[in-house]
Amino acid sequence: MKIVAKTDKGIVRDSNQDAYAVGEFSDEVVWSVVCDGMGGAAGGNIASALAVKVISDKINASYREKMRDTSIHNMLDSALTAANIEVYDFAEAKPELRGMGTTVVCAIVRDNQAYIAHAGDSRAYIINNGDIKQVTTDHSMVQDLLSRGKITTEEAENHPNKNIITRAVGVDKSIDIDFEQVDLNDDDVLLLCTDGLSNYVSNNEMIEIMSDGKHYAFADRLVTQANKNGGGDNITVVIISK
User: DSSP per residue over 157-194, as a string?
Assistant: First the structure.
């Protein structure tokens, strides 16, 4: 398995409130976590960095070879729940950080399977031979409106409340976490990203950028394209491929 990643503050923001981590347990088992902090410059930075650390530590401490699917699911659920508690408690102890939180998308890839947990609007995609599939469903006000047929896809792309999310790590005492398990073909590419990529780079642009199979260049190219298209937010990209 191969992993390439890049994070960038974009060309508008003064600081980078995104955070990520990647790791591997063997040539065939890799993991990553991507977070996008919110709650002011200090709060966003702290929330995302703390969540990434807690989740990474839990995965590294808990993963075992030949774990069952349900055990991986439970491990990810436990890791994200622990991160929620840590971020929430940290914010409660410091009045100036109240309300801080972070989105999260986390994946473990093993034996042509991707185990994905997420909360918020950071996303996971699978890209393969000119096709792109969004694996995660955003926890956002706009996605709720779209799901209920209140707005069209075109209206969603430019909706004024596009940045309002309905779930995040650390905002409440408890958190609901969505979990997906998907099959991966040998030539599939798994992309994890914050909305600094998905809001500024279209699906067609992602497909074009990743069409030549040069996996080592994908993360850098995608960040470059997001900045070329406005770079209005922090951008984080993780690419996992065979």
Answer: HT-TTTT-BS--BTSSSS---EEEEEE--TT-EEEEE-
Sign of the dihedral through C-alpha 65, 71, 74, 78: negative
What's the predicted TM-score (pTM) here? 0.94
Asked if 112 and 136 count as a contact pair (C-beta separation under 8 A), the reply is no
List pLDDT tens digits, range 48-85. Answer: 999 999 999 999 999 999 899 999 999 999 999 999 99
Q: Which residue has the tokens 């918020």?
A: 120
Alpha carbons 68 and 131: distance in angstroms, whole number: 30
Q: What's the rounded Cα separation, in Å, for the pair 84 and 141?
A: 21
The sheet with strand 178-183 has its strands ordered as: 18-26, 29-38, 101-110, 113-119, 178-183
